[in-house]
Design a protein that fits this description.
Elements lengths: L1 H38 L3 E8 L2 E12 L4 E2 L7 E2 L4 H14 L25 H5 L22 H4 L20 H15 L3 H10 L8 E2 L13 E4 L2 E4 L9 H4 L1 E3 L1 H12 L6 H7 L18 E4 L5 E9 L2 E8 L4 E7 L9 H14 L2
Antiparallel strand pairs: 1-2, 1-12, 2-3, 4-8, 5-8, 6-7, 9-10, 10-11, 11-12
Length: 359
Amino acid sequence: MKVSKLILALLLGLLSSFSVASESIDRATRLVEHFMQDSGAPGLAVTVAYNNHIVWSEGFGYADIEQKVAVNPALTKFRVGSIAKPFTAFALAKLLEAEKIELDAEVQNYVPTFPQKNYPITVRQLAGHLSGIRHYLDNEMYQRKKYSSVKEGLVIFQDSPLTHIPNAQWTYTSYGFNLLSAAIEQAADTNYLEFMATEVFLPLGMQQTVADHLDEIIPHRSRYYFRRDNKLINEPEVDNSYKWASGGFLSTSEDLARFGLAHLNPQHLKKTTIDLLWTPQKTTAGTSTKYGLGWRIFTGDEDQLWVGHGGGSIGGTTQFWLFPEHGLVIAAISNQTDLNYGTLIPELQKIFREQATKP
């Protein structure tokens, strides 16, 4: 009799916990549905992970509007843009732990064919956007040329002068990460994409994260859209083979959540290594860049630490954030260029943070 009462009490407790979780999910679902209505986004996948588990994952709208293919957060592969930079930082971290690369070594130690500039450029400066390597010019993001290797893609910017003396200021540069990936290739003694697959994606269970090969048949790849005059239009096809490391991957919101959780439960990287990635760099003048090595770091409302990245690409906009103090990860991906997420991520964070802090 006593055992039966104990079991009943446990079941009631589980039901009570479930009802609280359901309330949070209902609130989050309504919030995203309103966002979809207000923004007119074609498709959106949202995944929330907490305490080493995915606790909510849902698709909204369409991965392909014309064929009415619904978004599936476990399978729909979106262009995640600059989320490739934290991916690349993970690869860099693996090489650091293996003592195969040095952060303060000049990049020519690993990529001797890259032209010398007026000032030396280090691996650390590339990973922290302090190198002075330029960003995109004009319509470079819309190019369709296929590049057969990482080093071949360097030709786009390798002869351009530095925009500033390294470390003098913080200047965001995707091309800096392209050069970083060439250094990673040399240090790892293997192809960059192969290294990412074997050392990052497969160990973390990111089975749906792949390079965005324009000419390949990739199951569950979303279509790409942008909005003009309040009307959705198809984006032109582009080839991202020149920038795998800075913005050339397809992924799902659930894979991004797994990637985030790997940093909150450091089984794949040492905690000291993760701390290194998440330590804001400083300019020569001592000003914080609010950017570590491949990661943005800032403090939000109520002094909460935000660690993550945004991703903008042709036909994709991503928000990916970790809240280490609460063990929380939020990933949202859409198949629309320049989608404004507004307050969606802070509001989702508040809903699930309230859940995380309840006894």
